[in-house]
Amino acid sequence: MKTAISTLSAPQAIGPYSQAIKSGGFLFLSGQIPLDPATGNLVDGDIAAQARRVLDNIREVLAAAGVGFSSVVKTSIFLMDLADFATVNGIYAEYFSSPFPARSTFQVAALPKGSRIEIEVVAALA
């Protein structure tokens, strides 16, 4: 069984997917890019501004399911340029605390809407 989670406080899906799905005691968030929830447009700014918007969007989807960053058990970060890793890592540490989730980071050829970053997470619900 699965249940869709949705909030107007985070960007609406730009394709045939849900913001998040609850299933089997876990919450699976779709990848978030730095879209402004009010406009649906990519935020202006550097990788730091984009990373903060992504993590703020994730916070809103998590909250819609009744959990927070402390419930996240796995993250995947997709970057256009691994040279941005140190900046993103510093901002990431502002949102997560120990014990930190397991994490993978990848450099990719392209991301939707010209974003420089996308993050997806899995959270435990119990």
Let me know the average pLDDT: 97
Q: Ends: how far apart?
A: 16 Å
Give the low-pLDDT segments. none
Strand neighbour order, sheet with most strands: 1-2-3-6-4-5
Structural class: alpha+beta
Fraction in beta strands = 25-35%
Shape: globular
CATH architecture type: 2-Layer Sandwich
CATH third-level topology: 60s Ribosomal Protein L30, Chain: A
Q: What kind of sheet is the major sheet?
A: 6 strands, mixed
Determine the fraction of residues in helical runs and give it as a percent range.
10-25%
> Whole-number radius of gyration?
14 Å
- One letter per element, helices H and strands E, the order comes to EEEHEHEE
Fourth-level CATH superfamily:
RutC-like
Number of domains: 1
CATH class: Alpha Beta
Please tag this protein with its features.
126 residues, alpha+beta, 60s Ribosomal Protein L30, Chain: A, 6-stranded mixed sheet
What does this 3D model show about the protein?
The structure is a single chain. With 126 residues, the chain is an alpha+beta fold. It has a single domain (3-124), classed as 60s Ribosomal Protein L30, Chain: A (2-Layer Sandwich). The chain is 23% helix and 26% strand. The protein contains 2 helices and 6 strands; from the N terminus they run βββαβαββ. The chain has helices spanning 47-64, 85-95, and strands spanning 3-5, 20-23, 26-29, 72-79, 102-107, 117-124. It has a 6-stranded mixed sheet, with helices on one face. α1 (47-64) packs parallel to α2. The two termini are 16 Å apart. 28% of the residues are buried.
